[in-house]
């Protein structure tokens, strides 16, 4: 076992099992080291794109604390790698839209049921057709509700509270959502009219790309006690919803990247990559971006809530029972493109930092006050989707997450191929047929190209990603799930 790993000119030193470090080079402008959490097999894949160079660039951001981090599912992104985590001083540092991404609060939520796989087997086509009909997907407009200016303002300002007031949620849904589905720092006035207009007719929609709604069954239980606390058991049917803030969030990111270029050009020039564009902490622009980002976060939570609302209606129709009788409770909703002010212990002192999680999931451990009371004794649920053919995992926030990763872990399997390459390698119809005939997975999408882009072979081995998280005790295995049917844009 080697103590170093050479990645085409970037040398990583082994700190301990699954933890690798790119040494801080102050002469090159690095303010801290960079750390990559990965097995050697995953490093071989991560080194194939610009992820390592990008995480090294992140260390140049002023105010960054301890180290910049790459999760085991890392792949090349915009500025930050996807799978990047950075905690930056909220008083003397900066906040980076590139450290959040264009799809603000892209995230996942899992809905439980009391159905078993036997209840669904043989009815997959009926179910996937009904879900495809009820849940808007694909590029462009179309949502569950027809938005107007008052609606969009209410969603941006109040998040899941708006959904509760309008009858799309029950109180327990809020209790089982990160931050109870509401960011009080949201400032709708900091969101442009163009962004609001883009979001107005997309409220309650999956969008396209890697976003999906997937009916799954629990195949493996790794921790009986925690699974019981989460209400999960073998052969149970669950539903996973993965999407974000749609065109609204994309426009917020675009707007503020442009403003950073215009208002802080010297600051931008000091960074090794203009895609790291950041607003200095304490500046008017930083406060406005934070307010706009938090508003987009609220929008994304409502977006997923409305999709869950539609899903409950579909299950009521297909299984001829009220959703309450079907046990369709929200397990949890987690964000994985976000930057939030959090207090962390750094060098023995508590410090408020902007924790940027770009393609990374919050993973707070047992006892943390921000874990919902229902789960505080065992730790926060962490939901990590894999590919359409590989299944997904539910973890619990690990005991070492606060010390190792600012309370974070991976967010998925991580891409191996670009979308363009995937469409060259795979044919959507073939992938769809193979999944159905060989794996009994029913997939429906707006286009074959979308299925090709998301073919199982496009992604890293999710089992390997989870093994790293579990071994480091940043996110511990609870259950594994496997797809039954899937709808995509």
**Rg, alpha carbons:** 21 Å
* Estimated share of beta-strand residues: 25-35%
Shape summary: globular
Q: How many structural domains does the protein architecture include?
A: 1
Strand order in space, largest sheet: 1-2-3-4-5-6-14-13
| Percent in helix | 25-40%
The count of DSSP E runs of length 2 or more, i.e. the number of strands, is 20
CATH architecture: Alpha-Beta Complex
Q: Kindly report the name of the CATH homologous superfamily.
A: tRNA-splicing ligase RtcB
- At the fold tier of CATH, the topology name is tRNA-splicing ligase RtcB
**Mean pLDDT over the residues:** 95
Number of helices: 17
Quick one: CATH class?
A: Alpha Beta
Largest beta sheet, briefly?
Answer: 8 strands, mixed
What structural class do helix, strand and pairing data support?
A: alpha+beta
Q: How far is it from the N-terminal to the C-terminal residue, by CA?
A: 44 Å
Oligomer: single chain
Family: Belongs to the RtcB family.
InterPro entries: RtcB (IPR001233), RtcB-like_sf (IPR036025)
Enzyme class: ligase
Function: Essential for tRNA splicing and maturation. Acts by directly joining spliced tRNA halves to mature-sized tRNAs. Joins RNA with 2',3'-cyclic-phosphate or 3'-phosphate ends to RNA with 5'-hydroxy ends.
């Amino acid at each position: 076992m080697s103590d170093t790993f050479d990645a085409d000119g970037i040398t990583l030193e082994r700190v301990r099992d699954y933890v690798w470090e790119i040494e801080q080079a102050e002469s090159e402008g690095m303010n801290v080291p960079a750390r990559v959490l990965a097995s050697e097999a995953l490093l071989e894949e991560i080194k194939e794109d610009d992820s390592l160079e990008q995480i090294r660039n992140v260390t140049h951001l002023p105010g960054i604390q301890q180290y910049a981090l790459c999760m085991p599912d890392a792949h090349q992104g915009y500025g930050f790698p996807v799978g990047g985590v950075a905690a930056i001083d909220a008083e003397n540092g900066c906040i980076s839209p590139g450290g959040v991404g264009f799809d603000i609060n892209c995230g996942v939520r899992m809905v439980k049921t009391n159905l078993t796989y036997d209840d669904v087997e043989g009815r997959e086509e009926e179910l996937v057709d009904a879900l495809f009909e009820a849940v808007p997907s694909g590029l462009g407009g179309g949502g569950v509700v027809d938005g107007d200016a008052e609606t969009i303002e209410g969603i941006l300002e109040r998040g899941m509270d708006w959904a509760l007031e309008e009858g799309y949620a029950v109180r327990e849904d809020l209790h089982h959502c990160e931050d109870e589905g509401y960011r009080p720092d949201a400032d709708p006035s900091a969101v442009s009219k163009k962004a609001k207009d883009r979001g107005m007719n997309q409220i309650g929609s999956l969008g396209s790309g890697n976003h999906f709604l997937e009916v799954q069954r629990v195949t493996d239980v790794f921790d009986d006690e925690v699974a019981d606390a989460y209400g999960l058991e073998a052969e149970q049917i669950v539903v996973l919803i993965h999407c974000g803030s749609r065109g609204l969030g994309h426009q917020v990111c675009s707007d503020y990247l442009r403003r950073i270029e215009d208002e802080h050009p010297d600051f931008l020039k000091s960074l090794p990559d203009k895609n790291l564009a950041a607003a200095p902490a304490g500046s008017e622009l930083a406060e406005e971006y934070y307010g706009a980002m938090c508003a987009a976060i609220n929008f994304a939570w409502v977006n997923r809530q409305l999709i869950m609302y539609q899903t409950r209606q579909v299950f009521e129709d297909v299984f001829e029972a009220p959703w309450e009788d079907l046990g369709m409770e929200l397990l949890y909703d987690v964000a994985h493109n976000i930057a939030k002010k959090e207090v962390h212990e750094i060098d023995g002192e508590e410090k408020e930092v902007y924790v940027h999680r770009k393609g990374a999931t919050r993973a707070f451990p047992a006892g943390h006050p921000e874990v919902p009371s229902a789960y505080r004794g065992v730790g926060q649920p962490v939901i990590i989707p894999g590919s359409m053919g590989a299944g997904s995992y539910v973890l619990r926030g690990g005991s070492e997450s606060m010390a190792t990763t600012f309370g974070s872990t991976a967010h998925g399997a991580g891409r191996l191929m670009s979308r363009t390459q995937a469409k060259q390698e795979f044919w959507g119809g073939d992938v769809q047929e193979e999944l159905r005939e060989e794996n009994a997975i029913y997939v429906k999408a707006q286009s074959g190209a979308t299925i090709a882009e998301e073919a199982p072979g496009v992604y890293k081995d999710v089992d390997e990603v989870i093994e790293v998280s579990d071994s480091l005790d940043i996110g511990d295995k609870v259950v594994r799930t496997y797809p039954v049917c899937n709808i995509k844009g």
